[in-house]
Write a structure and sequence with these properties.
By secondary structure, this protein is mainly alpha-helical. It has a domain at 23-68. The chain is built from three helices and no strands. It starts with 10 loop residues before the first helix and ends with a helix.
Length: 70
């Protein structure tokens, strides 16, 4: 008679892996938002930035706030 033995990882192991993956994905998305915001604002002319009441020196701060919330 043949027996089959299966070893299953506990759900908590998979939950930890999924949690880590989701955290990595969220960080990637935030970095993408930051880079895109910096790129788009940097491409604006001085007049466009003045119309938006943004100084060129504030672009990275604004992008950081948009991406990371603080």
């Amino acid at each position: 008679m043949a027996y089959i033995t299966q070893n299953h990882a506990t759900p908590s192991v998979f939950a930890g892996i999924i949690s880590a993956f989701n955290a990595l994905k969220a960080r990637y998305e935030a970095n993408r938002v930051y880079a895109k915001t910096v790129s788009e604002l940097s491409a604006l002319t001085a007049r466009d930035l003045a119309d938006l009441n943004i100084n060129r020196a504030d672009i990275r701060r604004i992008a950081r706030e948009a991406a990371y919330g603080a």
